[in-house]
Amino acid sequence: MRQEWPYHERPYRSLSALLALLLGLTVAHADTFPSHTIRLIVPFPAGGSNDVAARLIAPHLEKALGQTVIVDNRPAAGGIVGSDAVAKAAPDGHTLLLVASSHTVTPALNSKLPYNTERDFAPISLINTNAMVFFVNPKVPAKNLGDLIGLAKRRPGKLNYSSPGAGSQTHLLIELLSRRAGIAAQHVPYRGGAPAAMAILGGEADFTLLAPNVLFPHIKAGTLRPIATGGAARHAQLPDVQTTAEAGYAEVRAVQWVGVLTTAGTPAPVLERLNAELNRIVRLPEVTERFAEQGVTPTGGTAEDFRKLIAAEIRQWTETVRAADIKVE
Question: Contact, 45 vs 51, CB < 8 A?
């Protein structure tokens, strides 16, 4: 005669069995990961600094995981196409996405993305960071950020700043600073960081905020004057230049970053392994040396810290875009 369990016990036993099955599947998947080729999607053109970072870490990741790692450049639609491919991939850790800080700007400017920037991706680790620098043309009478803000207050709406484009990180950060400092400056967008820097060198614009990587020769020549850096600490190559926090604007954190995500729902053991490998790789001497040549700092860190950074920046940029009524066609 078959024994019947009391009715009130059945859901608990069924739930326990289901949890045990799911746990077993997760462990089994982690034990077999990776089982085939890994695709590292880079939503940027080949040859740029983000692509260089991907191609620098890919062979080390390939060696560590024992599977081929293919770098797949998909630069269409400002990175949305490549990101969407990862958002909709199988959640098994075999499709990765290399993103830059623009990843958190995009949802603030585009409310109709085909994915949710926070819910559809699983952060793995930061790769590197790069503190941006406020520059002025040497003819502008400002030696530091406080001087520039004072000048802008005395000449409301008269100063102008260059940026790599409307909706760029430079644009949003200077709008954020303007609102915090109570100043107004005219935005002059260019197509990329190089022409934005040339505008300062040529006197077409008064100030800007850019990554300093290729600008050190101009700093040494005195044709660009750095007045503040956006990192948590002073820039190693600009030890005499104050940070935005030291100038009284800690909320203006001007740092570009590169990191790796994968598809949401990827098992935790797979995420943990990928995080451990990436943290090890960014600290390899040959990797740190190459990053130093690019002027960026190897970072690493926990997936949770990376998640918090993404969430905080999305909130910040969304508020900035709304407050400044920024629209990008």
Answer: yes
